Amino acid sequence: MNTRLPPEFFLRDVLDVAPELIGKKLVRCFPDGSIEKYMITEVEAYRGIEDLACHASKGRTPRTEVMFGEGGTVYVYLIYGQYWLLNLVTGSEGDASAVLIRCIEGFPGPGRVGRELQLDKSFYGESLITSQRIWVEDAEPVPEIRTSKRIGIEYSGEWADKLWRFYL
DNA sequence: AAGACGATCCTG
DNA sequence: AGGATCGTCTTT
């Protein structure tokens, strides 16, 4: 409890990591020094270059670069010119997988998560292992985790049918 | 250089 | 139902 998740937690298949993130505490130390801890309540797994819903399927670019690295880092990107969406990179170098944090307690919706956490471009590539402003801590296991199809990726064909959304 | 679009949210 | 808003990628 109150223990920062170690590298090993993230260095696994995204489909193992994603459901285990449900119930964990996302910790944010704000610029004013205040610290808030939010329970993670909804995530989605994006799994490598084959997953057409995963940005990494577009290839290795300045934007997707961090996903191709080793797990345990932050991947943020701006959507619709308005919201910074938070992702946690998982797996070994080259896996190009990440977990989208869709909801935290009190803040339903990936855009609202980024707004609450005051994310911006500077979080791109941040280490969840050494960062002093964002990380994840262990927590009591949650009783029941539900699954469904991922949201907003109808363009990805068969990949849209994967039950890779996990929530309380 | 210009155009299209998006893992969203808010308003009416 | 439609607009906001801009970085990234694609096309010229």
Give a quick rundown of the structure.
The protein is mainly beta and 168 residues long.
Protein architecture, described:
With 168 residues, the chain is mainly beta. It has a single domain (7-167), classed as Methylpurine-DNA glycosylase (MPG) (3-methyladenine DNA Glycosylase, Chain A, Roll). Helix content is 11%, strand content 31%. The protein has helices spanning 7-10, 14-21, 110-116, and strands spanning 25-29, 35-47, 74-79, 83-90, 97-104, 107-108, 134-137, 146-148, 165-167. Strands 1, 2, 3, 4, 5, 6, 7, 8 and 9 form a 9-stranded antiparallel β-sheet that branches. A hairpin with a 6-residue loop joins β4 (83-90) and β5 (97-104). It starts with 6 loop residues before the first helix and ends with a strand. The model has no long low-confidence stretch (mean pLDDT 97). The structure holds a DNA duplex (12 and 12 nucleotides).
CATH class: Alpha Beta
The amount of helix comes to: 10-25%
Total number of beta strands: 9
CATH topology: 3-methyladenine DNA Glycosylase, Chain A
CATH architecture call: Roll
Q: How much of the sequence is in beta strands?
A: 25-35%
- What structural class do you assign from the helix and strand content? mainly beta
Mean pLDDT over the full residue set: 97
- The outline comes out as globular
- Based on CA atoms alone, the radius of gyration comes out at 15 Å
Distance between the termini: 20 Å
Report low-confidence residues grouped into runs of 5 or more: none
- What kind of sheet is the major sheet? 9 strands, antiparallel
The CATH homologous superfamily is called Methylpurine-DNA glycosylase (MPG)
Q: Helix and strand string, N-terminal first?
A: HHEEEEEEHEEE
- Number of discrete helical segments: 3
Number of domains as seen in the coordinates? 1
